[in-house]
Design goal:
Number of helices: 21
Oligomer: single chain
Helix content: 40-55%
Number of strands: 7
Distance between the termini: 45 Å
Strand order of the largest sheet: 2-3-4-1-5
Structural class: alpha/beta
Strand content: 5-15%
């Protein structure tokens, strides 16, 4: 079994079985949604993820399509429910576009919004745009009545660049100098790298940073300002680096290592050698000496659909760690699909015996093998060994054996309930629910592998390579 190759195998299987070239979604386009899918009586609901907010992009599209004076938006969550309903009525009657943002903050009010939408007789130019994060209490009726769009950063450098250039259009690129067109491509590449590097946490970034379209637009604004100051044929590199590092992208970063990575990217992508053709972006792309959008789109189309870690300056074998993580996500999703029904979760002696009996039997066999071999007895003097590595290993082993014993106690309690010789307590009930749902029981997850001061007052925690170990006071 190779968990680091499951994702690649699944993609190959799907492409071969369905006769497609890739499994990535089609490029997102506001224009296509408006032209082909929208209608006055059907709201358009964007389900967003961290680091992705369609508000700025929607605002620009509305400005180009119906004019800024015909587009209104409101962020929910500030006791503005009545204001929102009045805005809805006005926009529907006058044919304006309206956007309600962050609906997940007001889920209790959404049934009222759904009734109000149903009662409208909107103008043919009216459009209602909604944004929300995924929320378990989002009303199903409103969800079913909307045209739903999942809004997130496109997977891969190529699709990220393609979405950016689809949003710009030929006229926007052609209107300036060659240096301006080159800078816009470099910024689009830089933004895509910043977002896609999040796939390699914690080696890429130490945490998930919400680099968004708003950051990208702020970067475009800085480029336009610096170009206007240089009469379109020069730019202040230090100023650009400083604003990007300390205000725009760097403003989201709170880790010194990540800030050094950001600074290295800025120095690598935004320098004179890149724009005169003597240095390539990420070592693979030479920026065209042109301001024609066709040249840039042609370059983007030649890129591979899948990214390699070397594009981000990362070792090639890091992809295995990413695939292992994605495999865990896939397995977790499959477990959810196979999850038992609510009727199975309710206590029923026969059903629990049928579903959980095999688990308790397998555990008994595993624990018997361990106990028959003899569990080593680890004493306090082992934990207080002078060699820190030896002390660390004894501590890990001690807590591992302790964890196994606690899990055995938990499984034995569950087994007694199944066979009618034990009481059904809240802890046993929760453990059974977790196991029936394909999850690791919360009680097991909370078993600490290392001592804390509360558990052993006579032990002192010291640091060894970033790990906490135990040392006798």
């Amino acid at each position: 079994f190779r968990p680091d190759r499951i994702e690649s195998a699944l993609q190959s299987f799907l492409c071969e079985a369905l006769g497609i070239t890739g499994v990535a979604a089609l490029n997102f386009s506001f224009n296509n949604i408006y032209r082909d899918e929208s209608a006055p009586e059907i709201p358009i609901l964007f389900v967003t993820s961290p680091g992705s907010d369609p508000s700025r992009e929607l605002e620009e599209f509305a400005e180009n399509t119906v004019g800024r004076e015909n587009f209104f938006e409101l962020s929910m969550g500030g006791n503005q429910n009545e204001v929102a309903l009045q805005m809805l009525k006005d926009a529907a009657s006058k044919g304006h576009w309206l956007c309600f943002k962050n609906l997940h903050l007001v889920t209790s009010w959404l049934p009222k919004l759904e009734k109000e939408i149903k009662s409208l007789q909107p103008h043919q130019n009216f459009r209602l745009w909604l944004t929300t994060e995924a929320h378990p209490k989002f009303p199903a009726i409103l969800l079913e009545s909307c045209y739903k769009v999942t809004y997130e950063a496109p997977p891969g450098i190529k699709k990220n660049l393609m979405r950016t250039y689809q949003g710009w259009g030929p006229a926007y690129i052609d209107q300036g100098s060659v240096l301006r067109a080159q800078l816009l491509f470099a910024l689009a590449w830089f933004h895509a790298i910043m977002q896609e590097r999040r796939n390699y946490i914690p080696q890429g970034w130490t945490k998930f940073y919400e680099f968004s379209y708003g950051d990208f637009r702020a970067g475009v604004g800085v480029l336009e300002t610096l170009l206007s100051e240089g009469q379109g044929d020069s730019i202040g590199w230090e100023t650009l680096h400083g604003l990007m590092e300390n205000a725009i992208y760097g403003g989201r970063i709170d880790n010194d290592y990540d800030l050094r990575v950001l600074k290295a990217y800025l120095e690598q992508f935004f320098n004179l050698e890149v724009f005169n053709g003597t240095q390539k972006l990420s070592g693979v792309v030479t920026i065209p000496n042109s301001k024609s959008v066709k040249d840039y789109l042609g370059l983007i189309n030649k890129l591979s659909d899948s990214d390699t870690p070397t594009l981000f300056g990362l070792p090639i074998n890091i992809d295995r760690a990413v695939q292992r993580y994605n495999t865990l996500q896939i397995v977790g999703s499959l477990k959810q699909l196979m999850a038992v029904s609510a009727e199975d979760i309710k206590f029923d002696k026969e059903r629990w015996s049928q579903l959980l009996g095999p688990l308790t039997k397998i555990w008994k066999q595993l624990y018997k093998q361990l106990s028959d071999g003899g569990i080593p007895q680890i004493k306090q003097h082992h934990l207080a060994a002078d060699d820190p590595v030896e002390s660390f290993i004894y501590a890990e082993a001690y807590e591992t054996f302790k964890m196994v014993e606690k899990i055995d106690e938990s499984m034995e309690g569950l087994n007694k309930v199944i066979f009618g010789t034990g009481l059904l307590t809240n802890d046993v009930m929760q453990q059974a629910i977790d196991l029936l749902s394909g999850k690791v029981p919360i009680r097991w997850s909370n078993i600490c592998l290392l001592y804390t001061s509360d558990a052993a007052d006579d032990l002192l925690c010291v640091d060894l390579g970033g790990r906490r170990i135990i040392k006798k006071k």
